[in-house]
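Please fill in the sequence for the structure shown.

STRUCTURE ENCODING:
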């Protein structure tokens, strides 16, 4: 993308085009004010390899060529994707609301997930807007544990294929409450929500980790950036442009500009009245630390010493169950369960959330644990894959000040993830669910699947990163105020997942989008609307 012509001063400058940055930029652009989005990556190419398991998981073709260092200073490659649209280019498109209880204090086995400075009711209207913006297909009211919704989804849920409908019926017979997993996909469907034959998604099992060359997955590029660029000539995007430092006025109260590296490698400074940081929870914290100055010696917005701390990222497990009943399902991501989300008869503490994954293929099963396939040791993997059912189990981790992002002396990033944080919840969730699957004739044959790149390094599982610049009312214990403006600065906002004081046990992105709309409304009001009737 060319450098926008004219002057280099913008009303609002947004760093990062993931779901957070894209959503706020698009909302603020509605004011008619000049808005610039900066993105370090380019557009993800649409090509055959988008759907190749080997290219995506084996060669990590689309994963950023990045090195972080863990707690013991060992290098690892994080699960990051530098593209227009950010990590949503490869996300699994499950867009789920946090539960109302997640906004209050939650007691876990290993500690407390703190309360948010706002409630589910405060966030609810933004959840409804976020669901519409990202074409989420779902059905409110099915999950008895979910909060109420003020609006229906725009689209009915993606229907279960027969094997998953059978599973749903069986789970209900066990007293559980399966519901349709809300999915951000674009289906061509009939009046009953059934995908019609020309629907690309329903013939496709390439969701988790795969980019969609057809644009059928609603990611930040297809759902927000392209439509917003088309609608608002006052909105610009610069790709392959990396923000290096945020600059402040001499008093240190306002961000005046952003020092960047342009696509040709040359340095440049853009100035702006309002700066919105949305580089992802880890990289936003690193950029603030990197922007230390005389007036902010410990990093920008860091008078509380909280920047980079309380890193969150979920305890996750991909579980494959093998049944003698064939599973010819193509689009498997249609079912979820919250029956173990809160303390219950199963355990006195919360365990977590369960949802379907995309279908394992032969290649992914080979990379799993074939020892578990004792019932069919010589079976070809393709045939075995025809019997597998894939689940994603998530439990909450607890914010800890020493789970944190820091800069090493050479400026590289250290992600010190403290081990064993509330992991018993996940173990118990797995055992409890396997107990249910046993009753359905599956559990003697379960296995875990290493879905992404984090087989060797747990810290590399950065997909659900959050919490490095939490929002709150007390500037001594939080980085951002309730509007996600830095306490220490007059005009710096953060709208990626870094604002979250706790992460719950469901996928984070719908909450990031809802919050980005909320902050976008606030910034739009602050800067005012011009030239728009
Ligand atoms: C494989 C995978 C599957 C997932 N599945 C799901 C799912 O099903 N449901 C769900 O809710 N979530 C899912 N997620 C998580 C989801 O992708 C993230 O929560 C979401 O993308 C975070 O949005 P964000 O705006 O906070 O940041 P990001 O998406 O990380 O975007 C940050 C952007 O900032 C850019 N950037 C970084 N540094 C700079 C800089 N210095 N200058 C300029 N630009 C910069 C990056 O290139 C990137 O584009 C998944 C993630 C992965 C990796």
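FILLED IN BY: designer on duty
SEQUENCE:
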């Amino acid at each position: 993308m060319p450098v926008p012509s004219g002057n280099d001063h913008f009303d609002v400058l947004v760093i990062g085009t993931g779901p957070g940055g894209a959503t706020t930029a698009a909302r603020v652009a509605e004011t008619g004010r000049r808005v610039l989005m900066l993105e370090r990556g380019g557009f993800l190419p649409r090509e055959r390899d988008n759907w190749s398991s080997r290219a995506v998981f084996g060669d990590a073709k689309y994963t950023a060529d990045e090195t972080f260092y863990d707690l013991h200073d060992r290098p690892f490659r994080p699960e990051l994707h530098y593209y227009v649209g950010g990590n949503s280019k490869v996300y699994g498109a499950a867009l789920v609301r946090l539960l109302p209880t997640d906004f209050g204090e939650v007691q876990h086995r290993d500690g407390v997930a703190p309360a948010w400075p706002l409630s589910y009711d405060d966030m609810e209207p933004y959840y409804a807007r976020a669901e519409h913006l990202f074409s989420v297909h779902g059905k409110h009211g099915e999950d008895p544990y979910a909060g109420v919704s003020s609006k229906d989804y725009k689209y009915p849920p993606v229907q279960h294929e027969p094997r998953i409908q059978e599973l749903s019926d069986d789970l209900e017979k066990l007293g559980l409450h399966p519901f349709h997993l809300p999915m951000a996909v674009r289906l061509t469907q009939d009046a009953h929500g059934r995908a019609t034959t020309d629907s690309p998604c329903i013939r496709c099992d390439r969701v988790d980790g795969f980019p969609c060359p057809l644009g059928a997955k609603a990611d930040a590029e297809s759902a927000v950036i392209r439509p917003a660029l088309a609608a608002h000539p006052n909105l610009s995007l610069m790709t392959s442009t990396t923000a290096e430092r945020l600059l402040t006025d001499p008093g240190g109260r306002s961000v005046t500009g952003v020092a960047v590296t342009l696509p040709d490698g040359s340095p440049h400074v853009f100035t702006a009245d309002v700066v919105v940081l949305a580089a992802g929870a880890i990289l936003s914290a690193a950029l603030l630390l990197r922007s230390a100055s005389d007036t902010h010696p410990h990093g920008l917005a860091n008078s509380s010493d909280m920047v980079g701390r309380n890193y969150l990222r979920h305890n996750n497990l991909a579980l494959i169950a093998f049944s003698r009943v064939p599973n010819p399902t193509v689009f498997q991501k249609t079912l979820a369960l919250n029956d173990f989300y809160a303390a219950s008869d199963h355990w006195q503490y919360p365990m977590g959330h369960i949802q379907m994954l995309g279908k394992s293929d032969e290649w992914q099963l080979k990379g799993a644990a074939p020892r578990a396939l004792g019932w069919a040791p010589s079976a070809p993997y393709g045939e075995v894959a025809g019997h597998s059912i894939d689940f994603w189990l998530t439990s909450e981790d607890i914010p800890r000040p020493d789970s944190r992002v820091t800069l090493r002396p050479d400026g590289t990033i250290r992600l010190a993830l403290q081990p064993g944080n509330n992991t018993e919840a996940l173990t118990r969730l797995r055992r409890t669910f396997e107990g249910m699957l046993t009753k359905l004739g599956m559990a003697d044959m379960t296995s875990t699947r290493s879905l992404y790149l984090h087989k060797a390094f747990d810290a590399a599982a950065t997909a659900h990163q959050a919490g490095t610049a939490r929002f709150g009312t007390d500037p001594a214990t939080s980085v951002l105020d309730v509007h996600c403006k830095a306490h220490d600065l007059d005009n710096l906002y953060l709208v990626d997942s870094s604002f979250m004081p706790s992460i719950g046990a469901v996928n984070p992105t719908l909450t990031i989008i809802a919050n980005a709309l909320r902050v976008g409304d606030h910034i739009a009001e602050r800067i005012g609307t011009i030239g728009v009737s």
